[in-house]
Amino acid sequence: MYCKGQLGELQRDLPLFKQAGLGVAAISYDSIAALHDFAVRKGITLPLLSDHESLVIRSYGVADRGYHKLSQLDVDSSGKVPVFGLAYPSVFVLNLDGTVRWRFVSEHEELRLTAGSIFSRSVGQFPNRNRTPLDAGRIHLEIESSETFAGLGSRLTLGLELRIPVGWYIYGPQVGEEYHGALLADGVIGVFHQR
Questions:
Q1: Domain range holding 36?
Q2: DSSP H helical segments within 32-104, as ranges?
Q3: How far apart (Å, rounded) are the C-alpha atoms in residues 134 and 28?
Q4: Could you tell me if 115 and 135 lie in one domain?
Q5: Average pLDDT of the chain to the nearest whole number
Q6: C-beta neighbour count of 30 within 10 angstroms
Q7: CA-based diameter of the chain, in Å?
Q8: How far apart are CA 127 and CA 146, in angstroms?
Q9: Are both 119 and 64 inside the same structural domain?
């Protein structure tokens, strides 16, 4: 259910990835016939690759260890299907030489990155969909989101740009290591949550 929604988002945002010079493909342990049927029904044009023996899934270390060799589940009320070799929800961005440039592996099947969040985390910039300016006296704040809408279980990325007058300083003792800040030109600070 969650993977189908994520594939729809990736299909919708395919032009965004192509514009950044990235290709998108999905790999699953599902059969070629099941993937073809899904692609036709949902209008998916990005490549859906079948790894029915989960060889690639295992080589990347993302096979769900919760399922043993004879495990079966009724995933969509159509009867039990084998799930040995099912992958954790994962995203890999590869360099042209095949090395992993960036990766995300979800710890829960229902938690997925939105397409905009994948783009912002892997490319390092927001797709500029949702930027909201806020002014509070001499301080100017802009909040940016990787998505304008996110479904159940989706993780999106938020960014914050804070402009302070020259000579002002910000002290943040509670900021943890998962936040990355950079002092930009003319008193502009960018803070990005990378979790």
A1: 2-123
A2: 32-42, 55-59
A3: 43
A4: no
A5: 77
A6: 20
A7: 66
A8: 6
A9: yes
- 92 and 6 fall within a common domain: yes
Contact 15/49 with Cβ under 8 angstroms?
no
For residue range 77-115, list pLDDT tens digits in order: 667 766 667 788 888 888 778 888 888 888 777 788 888
Q: Which domain CATH number covers 24?
A: 3.40.30.10
Length of the chain: 195
Q: Which residues contact residue 191 at a Cβ distance below 8 angstroms, ignoring those fewer than 6 apart?
A: 159, 160, 161, 162, 175, 179, 180, 181
> Looking at residue 42, what is its pLDDT?
92
How far is Cα 86 from Cα 63, in angstroms, rounded to an integer? 6
Beta-strand relationship, 154-155 and 179-183: unpaired
Distance CA 90, CA 2 (A): 12
Say what the pLDDT of residue 193 is.
46
Number of domains in the chain: 2
SS3 23: coil
- Pairwise CA distance, residues 157 & 134, whole Å: 19
pLDDT in tens, 118-148: 888 887 777 766 778 888 788 888 888 777 7
- Which domain-ending residue is among 106, 123, 140? 123
The amino acid present at 38, given as its one-letter code, is F
